[in-house]
């Protein structure tokens, strides 16, 4: 049998109404990709839910996070109160939903501070090189040698209490990580052919830095920003738990966990459920950042 005859024997799915062979529907491809990576899909849904809480809390609850019903204090989770109530009768679910705005606001500021400052430091240091790079990297090494939470505590003590100050403190603690990653990518970008060609062509150093090196070196830093988002949620909640965040009765996630410490024996939900929300948000952000990493994307 010739090759042509063999091809004729292969069955082809044809549209019963006539025309070209059928192709699988686009929605089936999307569904198949989702089924192959259920963890990523779940993480995206969790993060979208938390972002919805932050930007439109009234869509998810009609309650008041600051007003309670005294007769319903310390009510366990149920149909009326999904997360139960606290010692003042306030709906814990409502407070968690409204607390997402404060916690994610601080997280976004923290990541932005670390990303902008760290990227600039690593970009300039890696591109200039020489003694300047040596001095800057020794300072970065000093920052890396200090535990992040301890450094954040020192900064927020100097700045004062409050959500914004907590966010700045967490952002300062992450500057060194961004600077290290950016510097490494800048060193790799400097050896690329197109950068050397631009240098030989007489293009200015500032233009080479902005138009050629920065876009080429930005990918890994963006992935790190996604990863730091989860870590920043945890750090902001930890500082809020210690009392450095917004003052009561603001429903920051860390403060909600802290408020329930005195009721662990009689009202476990006051600490467990807000803590679960924090953990789920951190894990979802970390999972998405792993998917964004091109080197590990196929494994996840």
Automatic annotation (TrEMBL):
<keyword id="KW-1133">Transmembrane helix</keyword>
<feature type="transmembrane region" description="Helical">
    <location>
        <begin position="221"/>
        <end position="246"/>
    </location>
</feature>
<feature type="transmembrane region" description="Helical">
    <location>
        <begin position="266"/>
        <end position="285"/>
    </location>
</feature>
<keyword id="KW-0472">Membrane</keyword>
<dbReference type="InterPro" id="IPR050366">
    <property type="entry name" value="BP-dependent_transpt_permease"/>
</dbReference>
<dbReference type="GO" id="GO:0005886">
    <property type="term" value="C:plasma membrane"/>
</dbReference>
<keyword id="KW-0812">Transmembrane</keyword>
<protein>
    <submittedName>
        <fullName>Peptide/nickel transport system permease protein</fullName>
    </submittedName>
</protein>
<dbReference type="InterPro" id="IPR035906">
    <property type="entry name" value="MetI-like_sf"/>
</dbReference>
<feature type="transmembrane region" description="Helical">
    <location>
        <begin position="135"/>
        <end position="156"/>
    </location>
</feature>
<feature type="transmembrane region" description="Helical">
    <location>
        <begin position="162"/>
        <end position="181"/>
    </location>
</feature>
<dbReference type="GO" id="GO:0055085">
    <property type="term" value="P:transmembrane transport"/>
</dbReference>
<comment type="similarity">
    <text>Belongs to the binding-protein-dependent transport system permease family.</text>
</comment>
<keyword id="KW-0813">Transport</keyword>
<feature type="transmembrane region" description="Helical">
    <location>
        <begin position="106"/>
        <end position="128"/>
    </location>
</feature>
<feature type="transmembrane region" description="Helical">
    <location>
        <begin position="40"/>
        <end position="60"/>
    </location>
</feature>
<feature type="domain" description="ABC transmembrane type-1">
    <location>
        <begin position="100"/>
        <end position="289"/>
    </location>
</feature>
<keyword id="KW-1003">Cell membrane</keyword>
<dbReference type="InterPro" id="IPR000515">
    <property type="entry name" value="MetI-like"/>
</dbReference>
<dbReference type="Pfam" id="PF00528">
    <property type="entry name" value="BPD_transp_1"/>
</dbReference>
């Amino acid at each position: 049998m010739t090759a042509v005859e063999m091809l004729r024997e292969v069955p082809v799915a044809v549209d019963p109404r006539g025309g070209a062979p059928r192709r699988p529907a686009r929605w089936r491809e999307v569904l198949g990709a989702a089924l192959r990576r259920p963890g990523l899909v779940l993480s995206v849904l969790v993060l979208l839910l938390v972002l919805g809480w932050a930007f439109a809390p009234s869509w998810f609850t009609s309650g008041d996070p600051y007003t309670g019903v005294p007769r319903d204090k310390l009510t366990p989770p149920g149909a009326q109160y999904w997360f139960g109530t606290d010692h003042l009768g306030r709906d814990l679910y409502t407070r968690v939903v409204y607390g997402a705005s404060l916690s994610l606001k601080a997280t976004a500021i923290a990541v932005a501070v670390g990303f902008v400052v760290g990227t600039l430091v690593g970009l300039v240091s890696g591109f200039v090189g020489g003694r300047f790079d040596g001095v800057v990297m020794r300072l970065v090494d000093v920052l890396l040698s200090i535990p992040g939470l301890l450094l954040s505590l020192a900064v927020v003590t100097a700045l004062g209490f409050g959500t914004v100050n907590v966010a700045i403190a967490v952002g300062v603690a992450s500057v060194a990580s961004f600077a290290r990653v950016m510097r490494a990518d800048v060193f790799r970008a400097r050896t690329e052919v197109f950068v050397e060609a631009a240098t030989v062509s007489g293009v200015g150093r500032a233009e080479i830095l902005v138009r050629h090196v920065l876009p080429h070196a930005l990918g890994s830093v963006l992935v790190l920003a996604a990863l730091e988002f989860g870590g920043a949620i945890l750090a902001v909640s930890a500082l809020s738990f210690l009392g450095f965040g917004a003052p009561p009765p603001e429903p920051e996630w860390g403060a909600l966990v802290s408020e329930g410490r005195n009721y662990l024996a009689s009202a476990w939900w006051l600490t467990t459920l807000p803590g679960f929300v924090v953990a789920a948000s951190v894990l979802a952000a970390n999972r998405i950042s792993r998917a964004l990493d091109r080197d590990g994307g196929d494994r996840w």
